[in-house]
Design brief:
The chain is an all-alpha fold. Helices cover about 70% and strands about 0% of the residues. The chain has a two-stranded antiparallel ribbon. The radius of gyration is 23 Å and the shape is globular. One of its GO terms (molecular function) is ATP binding.
Length: about 350
């Protein structure tokens, strides 16, 4: 595994110091991992795989092999123990896994049918259409959070550089920042296969730039209360975000992309990592995953009825540990977004 880590780091042109800074790990540890004098934890392996773009299965097999050899070494019963363990692992792997509902599967099948149709229309993609839909996404996402600009005013701010009388500086910045964040996730879609902590913090930094500069791109350091209930204490945020990325790395290749995107959104909202901008960041991250898999932006509407359905589905996922409604809500939103897009480019 040490050779795997060193080669991947050198291929990306990173120094051990830079890897250490990006992962929040001591530089001496990175050097020890590469020399074989120290074994990384499972969490560290997953973070290294994400940062260095190493296939997770490849590095996890190498890590587990070394872990097994370290534990059993040359013990005379090692091979027999491994055979028994193999049988047990095979048995456990056959245990039934949690399945998605018939209703959700039906919508996912409809989404994939629409996506196949969309793939056949890719040559008709239009920059002006994409620009208009992204403008709508900025308008709706900000409207969910209380921004009072109309779609027309949002257009004037973004495309004409105008200042709208009666609207606050914050509302103007929310519009500009969100549009720049869309451009950023589209760039990530082109050049990055997987998400990592650095990218999430960069998205958040864009969202809060000029609004809360001291908090932009940083995890919160204070306790927050929403509707009378407290979120995670700040000292647990970094740990929960570590678990968040571990969950993503473990599930990114096994879940349907729409389910993965919805889960990422819901999990990030639950952690409430930031003092502000959690909703916008979560929706952008969700849509980054959708774009990476060839889908289109799922544009959640900001009108009162849609907003309430969205919040209620999120609340049930968080308080009753029932994600079905939220998964259905996101899937239905993606389906409607695909249908609308196809109707426009098919004219």
């Amino acid at each position: 595994m040490k050779t795997l880590l060193k080669n991947a780091r050198e291929q990306k042109g990173l120094k051990t110091r830079e890897v250490a800074q990006l992962l929040g790990i001591d530089q001496a540890l990175i050097s020890k991992f590469e020399s074989g004098n120290r074994k990384p934890t499972r969490e560290q392996v997953i973070k290294l795989a994400s940062l260095l773009e190493i296939d997770l299965e490849t590095i996890m097999v190498a890590w587990l092999k070394e872990k097994i050899l370290y534990e059993i070494g040359q013990d005379e019963f090692a091979l027999k123990a491994l055979l028994v363990a193999e049988e047990e692992i095979r048995y456990q792997s056959k245990s039934p896994k949690k399945k998605i509902s018939t209703t959700l599967q039906k919508i996912l099948d409809e989404i994939d049918t629409l996506k196949r149709k969309l793939d056949g229309f890719r040559q008709f993609d239009s920059y002006s259409i994409s620009q208009a839909l992204e403008l709508e996404y900025t308008f709706e996402s900000n409207r969910i959070e209380g921004n009072t600009m109309t779609l027309r005013e949002t257009d004037l701010v973004i495309n004409e550089g105008l200042t709208i009388s009666g609207k606050s500086m914050r509302e103007h910045l929310e519009v500009i920042n969100h549009q720049e964040a869309i451009a950023y996730i589209k760039d990530l879609m082109q050049r990055s296969k997987f998400i990592n902590e650095s990218e999430v913090l960069s998205i958040h930094n864009l969202i809060l730039r000029g609004i809360h500069p001291e908090d932009a791109g940083r995890y919160r350091k204070v306790q927050v209360m929403i509707q009378g209930s407290s979120h995670l204490p700040p000292f647990l945020v970094a740990k929960e975000m570590g678990d968040f990325f571990i969950w993503y790395e473990t599930n990114k290749n096994s879940l349907h992309p729409v389910v993965l995107a919805a889960e990422i959104h819901e999990r990030l909202v639950i952690i409430h990592s930031f003092i502000d901008g959690n909703g916008r960041t979560s929706r952008l991250l969700m849509n980054l995953i959708l774009l990476q898999h060839g889908y289109i932006i799922a544009n959640i509407k900001g009108d009162y009825e849609s907003r309430m359905l969205y919040y209620q589905a999120l609340e049930r996922a968080q308080t009753k540990n029932n994600k079905e409604d939220f998964l259905l809500f996101i899937a239905q939103t993606e389906k409607e977004s695909l249908e609308r897009y196809l109707s426009i480019i098919g004219r």
